[in-house]
Amino acid sequence: MSRRRWAAIGTVVAAAIAVLATAPLAQAAPEQPGVPQPPASQPSVFDPPPPGSNDWNCTPGEEHPNPVVLVHGLSANQSNNWAYISPQLAQQGYCVFSLTYGRSPLAPPPLSQVGGLQPMERSAEELAAFVDRVRGTTGADKVDIVGHSEGSLMPNYYVKFLGGARYVDRYVGMTPLWDGTETAGLAFLNRTGQQLGIDPLLGLTLDPVCGSCRQFLKGSDFIEKMNSDGGPAVDGVTYTMIMTRYDELVVPYTSGELDGATNIVLQDGCPTDLAEHVAVAFDPVTLGHIENALDPDDATPVRCTPVGPDAPPAI
User: Fold this and answer.
1) Domain 45-184+216-298 in CATH: superfamily?
2) What percentage of residues in the chain have a pLDDT greater than 90?
3) What tens digit of pLDDT does each residue of 208-257 get?
4) Is residue 268 classed exposed, middle or buried when 0-12, 13-18 and 19+ CB atoms within 10 A define those classes?
5) pLDDT tens digits along 247-266
6) Which of 104, 158, 189, 196 has its CA 20 to 30 A from that of 67?
7) Could you tell me the residue ranges of all domains in the chain?
8) How far separated are the first and last CA of the chain, in Å rounded?
9) 70 to each of 50, 81, 146, 188, 281, how far by Cα in Å?
């Protein structure tokens, strides 16, 4: 094999692995007093639910009849992704549930502590089983989904292809990517690798550790399937998509626009909200839009609060 061909292989693999390696740092929330943090030396199975989540004795009331299922993003887990939003929703009377899905048994530390690494089809099966458990325990006919990043995309595989549409009422996505992402030119590099015939090598290198990583790229088979047959939106499900112009991981951020959804760009209503991809999960402006999406009959104007690009959780 020529030196040029090996150089092309190295470029594609290194770029993809770089995104995977840096993702945990991007997704991790700042440590907060009173919020248990999973020890780095312990298996990720010990990551605790965030405050307000997974009270299996919770009975939905008439005001909020649907349990809310929180679905984290790539290289996050239920503990760090939902430390702010989960207790806020629970305080408002929602039965809130969360899971850490898609762990990779081959991932080295610190990736062993996080989820979202399995192929999204497999993670959707995990989500389906979790929703069945939530419905069976609470007696609810349907759930509402609130997802961040991968959690805004993967659940729709459950909705569209695994029969989840009958069990999901409202679907709220934060920093979604229905058209994939071109972050750091990876979509181009991946297509180039395929054209050079090096795609199998990239798959052998990256896919066993992160089967979902290449699925996020614009033009991937997963993205193409999700957009087939008229697009991602499924009849009977009410979609709300929340985007930020400062999203550095979903590029362009308009990839989050979904036909048939209420599409919200944070800065349209709040120019001083500078939240980037991770910070939206700790943003009171985002929370206000989530509250309105889950309970549109009691929707109120969302207060514009200045938020920095790396804002710590708002308590």
Assistant:
1) Alpha/Beta hydrolase fold, catalytic domain (3.40.50.1820)
2) 69
3) 788 998 999 999 999 999 999 999 999 999 999 999 999 999 999 999 99
4) exposed
5) 999 999 999 999 999 999 99
6) 104
7) 45-184+216-298
8) 57
9) 10, 9, 5, 32, 11
